[in-house]
Amino acid sequence: MATLAPVTAADVARARDAVAGAARHTPVLASATLTERCGGDVLLKAESLQRTGSFKVRGALAKLAALGDGCATGVVCGSAGNHAQALAMAARVRGVRCEVFMPAQAPIAKAEGAAALGATVRLAGESVEDCVGAALERAQEAGMAFVHPFDDPDVVAGQGTLGLELLADLPDLARVLVPVGGGGLAGGVAIAVKSARPDVEVVGVQVETVAAFPASLRAGAPVAVDAALTIADGIAVKRPGELTLALVREWLDEVVVVAEDDVAEAMVLLLEKAKLVVEGAGAVGVAALLAGAVAPAPRGQTCVILSGGNVDAGLLAVVARRHETEAGRRMVLFTRVSDRPGALARLLIVVAEAGANLLDVEHVREGVDLHVRETAVQLVLETRGTEHAARVAVAVGEAGYQAHLVR
Known about the structure:
Layout: H1 9-20, E1 28-30, H2 32-38, E2 41-45, H3 56-67, E3 75-78, H4 82-94, E4 98-102, H5 108-116, E5 120-123, H6 128-142, E6 145-146, H7 153-169, E7 173-179, H8 184-196, E8 201-207, H9 213-219, H10 242-251, E9 254-258, H11 260-272, H12 284-291, E10 301-305, H13 313-326, E11 330-338, H14 343-353, E12 357-364, E13 374-382, H15 386-398, E14 404-406
Parallel strand pairs: 2-10, 3-4, 3-6, 4-5, 7-8, 7-10, 8-9
Antiparallel strand pairs: 1-2, 11-13, 11-14, 12-13
Helix pairs in contact: 1-3, 1-7, 3-4, 3-7, 4-5, 7-8, 8-10, 11-12, 11-13
């Protein structure tokens, strides 16, 4: 890896032709919500609307174009999921076979997406690094071309074509926030943008549970961190590449880190306000703005790259429910009632008169200190916000029920 050639603006320009034939020029959308909350002029680069649901298709297309006949025997990769789908699509475009290795706990949507595009999906190991190792072995065994998810000059150049779109679409661009996993997108975008306009700041964002770049930048060499479950699985890379670490060190102005909870809130805000489905990895830039880890540029446009939208519906539902609870629009109330006919109905009348909507009710008779003629009940209620939830709790208490909120 240490002998990899550097990537230049000319490489990114050459990659544009390979990418333009199959990838979309994704839109840049104004965000009134983020502009109002954070100040500055904030826009969103909706790469979550890209083909295969992420920016990765750019790098895959560029790499296969660079390989030419070198990929005729097929291509193979290790990936958390987005690169796998991207390579599967690029292989379909060129008419070659594709195998992808993904972590055992990879999101179902990403595994199914790669399979639907014609790839043979193999689940191997617990991390992207495990999958990359398995893919390398398979490439040597079968004579296939290995395509690294980020630490490859052609891949980085392909990702950099997103930066060319920013230059074309945003004449007043001043700051770019870009998710960082392996560093291919961040390095490519920074090269494209800053080669043309050195005054534009490019800030990388990692999630705290798997943030290898800060320590690696301090050490001047790739430093591995422990694998961890994260809502931002698409950027859960334990160790930067030699190439991408050098590019991030040279081209990025800063790398910041955000918390898991802030990423979850960013996903919900994008869903609720921007009407965009964005995965955790793609939402870290918005999380950084909301948490104050980075501010919008005082003058000019700040663009947040939403790098992907491949998220399982189940996880999205969990994140949305969590937000509803945090915002006071969903409350869980635990109390006791007499275990006699009509007792629960009387409690529900109190709740209804307080204006709450019943979503779920559960009787709890085990693990609770109850009188023989009592039952505990847990109510899940929909309310209109924190103040209304507090009024509902007061009304239940004034009706004679000893209730407490479950968070």
